[in-house]
Structure formats: C-alpha cells, structure tokens
Amino acid sequence: MITDLVQISRLGEKKREENKRLRMHMKSHPVADRRLRRIAETIESEMDCTTCANCCRLATVTLREREVESLAKFIGVSRQVFLQDYAEVTEEGLILKRSEKGCVFLEGNLCGVYDARPKTCETFPNLVRGEGSLVSRMWHMPDRATYCPIAYNTLEAFKGVLGFATHK
Ligand code: SF4
Ligand code: SF4
Fold it and tell me: Is the same domain home to 89 and 65?
C-alpha cells in the first residue's frame, strides 16, 4: 500500500482520467457493493489516518444545522460565536473555516473535536460508509485519489478485482 503523500499526489493525478473510466466501468459491470466494501474496509484498516490527516488539510467540510449545535456545545461557545469564528458561508453552503494549514480544528495531525466531528469527516473518504450505493459515490473518487491514500489504494484494488484494463 502506498501511503507517501507526494507519491499519492503524483500517481493520483497521473491516473485521474483512468479513475474516471473506472467509474464508468463499474456502472456497466455491476459488482455487489458488499464485495467492494470489504476491499475498502481492509485498506482502511491498514491505514493509520493519524499519520496522514491530508483530508483535514485539503477537503471541504460542509456542516448540517445539527452539527453547528453539537460542535458549538462541544467547544463551549454559543451558536453565534461558532458561526462567526469557526464556520463560513461559501457557494458550497456552510463549511468549517480553514486556514492555509487546513481545517480550523486540526491540531498537528489530530482532530481537536474528534468526538463531535461532522458526519462528512466521520465517513470520509466514503468508500466504506456514505449515502447511496458505492458506485453513486464514485464520482468523488478520481479527485480523492490524488490526496487520500485510502482512496488511491482502494481504486487500485478495485481495478484488479474488476478486471479493469489499465495503461501503465
Ligand atoms: S473537524 Fe476534525 S476530522 Fe473534520 S476536517 Fe476538521 S480536523 Fe479533520
Ligand atoms: S481518510 Fe485518507 S486523507 Fe484522510 S487521513 Fe485517512 S488516509 Fe489520509
């Protein structure tokens, strides 16, 4: 399994188009979700996310109303202060504030609000968990495979299982 983030970025970009084709291949060659999910589970269990935290640096975290309430409560501020200091409104909706270092709650490689983290964080990169079928979530994966080792390695494993032709 490749975990080096420089390599993941280079290989993920190189394979971006191939990974888009993989998504189309999966649509036309259906395989049971549970079989693919098992592969993703194995890869996820082999990855120690505390050595990485790249999603916390790079990905956008959208917030639901109830998450605003629970995060504000968790860090002990009012809803108004939370919205002012820890969130921002963008064209993607309400998101967690970020700096050049990443998410406002990232402390080193660890999450400062882990027990109250938003669902987006809890289920990322959405290969094992997420809404809808795995195939329906695949449209995010060519991008995620450029910065998330779990996503990159899982797509590579899928290719083997699905007999997907790659161009080395
Ligand atoms: S809330 Fe925690 S898990 Fe989510 S992006 Fe921020 S630091 Fe990462
Ligand atoms: S989910 Fe992916 S990007 Fe996020 S910490 Fe784990 S391996 Fe890294």
Answer: yes
Instruction: Specify the number of domains making up the chain.
Output: 2
User: 22 Cβ partners below 8 Å, 6+ apart?
Assistant: 138, 155, 158, 159, 162, 164
Q: How far is residue 141's CA from residue 39's CA, in Å, rounded to a whole number?
A: 15
What is the pTM (predicted TM-score) of this model?
A: 0.94
Does 114 map to a domain?
Answer: no
Q: Render pLDDT for 34-90 as a digit per residue (tens, 0 to 9).
A: 999 999 999 999 999 999 999 999 999 999 999 999 999 999 999 999 999 999 999
Looking at the structure, do residues 138 and 98 belong to the same domain, yes or no? Answer: no
Question: Rounded to the nearest whole angstrom, what is the distance from the C-alpha of residue 31 to the centroid of ligand 1?
Answer: 32
Q: Does residue 147 line the site of ligand 1, with CB under 6 A?
A: no
What domain range includes position 143? 5-56+125-162
Residue with the nearest Cα to atom 2 of ligand 2? 148
How far, in Å, is the centroid of ligand 2 from the Cα of 15? Answer: 18
Q: Is the CB of 58 under 6 A from ligand 2?
A: no
Cα–Cα distance, 148 to 15 (Å, whole number): 13
